[in-house]
Amino acid sequence: MQSEQLNYIPVFMQLVLAVGFVIAVIIISGKLGPKRSSENKDKNFECGIESVGNARIPFSVKYFLVAILFVLFDVEVIFLYPWAVNFKELGIEGMIKMIIFMMLLLVGFFYIIKKKALEWE
To answer: In this entry, which stretches build a coiled coil (predicted)?
Structure first.
């Protein structure tokens, strides 16, 4: 074998070990452990509260909208960290670009407030 191919042997060994471990844990957990089932143990529950009614009830789109807006603004704020770390190296050009970025962020935020996307009814 060539030396370049030999470099992949540890990666292959780790892959085999990881897959083998997962398979072993699944098999062992199926063989060990209690096998008793009852109506009370098979009930679905969430946070200790018993389920009532159908799970397919409609609910407001506001939940999704708030979640998407949170992710959007959270990802945009993440861009502030590399800028802050490299603040001195970027100089005035980096400062101007960040001001433009923050202005666009604020325009989007004020647009969301104007459209009342964060208000609950």
So the answer is: none
